[in-house]
Amino acid sequence: QVQLVESGGGLVQPGGSLRLSCVASGLTFNNYDMRWYRRAPGKERELVAGVTESGGTTDYADSVKGRFTISRDNAKSTVYLQMNSLKPEDTGVYYCSARASFRIPIWGQGTQVTVSS
Q1: Mean pLDDT over residues 18-46, rounded?
Q2: Which of 27, 50, 102, 104 could in theory staple to 35 by disulfide, Cβ–Cβ 3.0 to 4.6 A?
């Protein structure tokens, strides 16, 4: 069974940090680009960050550049999102997604991140 399971969300004060993890199973992890998305309350889903199969290339939304870092450990079939200097506007449900050519994207169930004092 193909599955992505996110963890690491929670409540954090502005300026704080969180590290999200997404563990993949049932797929050949290093054949997939991995992405983190988020959906803020009342807004559409937004691409936050992406990393290629090997981890050699990363990309970020302008709103998180310099604050968030995506990385992956192919030996552990895990992708991470390190989030620093969090702002209230970073609040939302964060989803990881696995992408490969000619394959339907795979999604996790999401993890809630709330940035509030």
Answers
A1: 96
A2: 50
**Cβ–Cβ contacts within 10 Å for residue 82, how many?**
15
d(CA 50, CA 60): 7
- CA distances (Å), origin 102, targets 31, 53, 58, 105: 12, 15, 21, 9
Tokens matching residue 61: 């939304």
Residue 71 CA, distance from chain mean position: 9
pLDDT attached to residue 55: 87
Tell me which residue of 81, 69, 75 sits closest to 108, measured CA to CA: 81
- The rounded distance, in Å, linking the Cα atoms of 99 and 59 is 14
Q: What is the pLDDT of residues 35-81, one digit of tens each?
A: 999 999 899 999 999 999 998 899 999 999 999 999 999 999 999 99
- What is d(CA 12, CA 100) in angstroms, rounded to the nearest whole number? 33
Pick from 9, 23, 112, 19: nearest CA to 69:
19
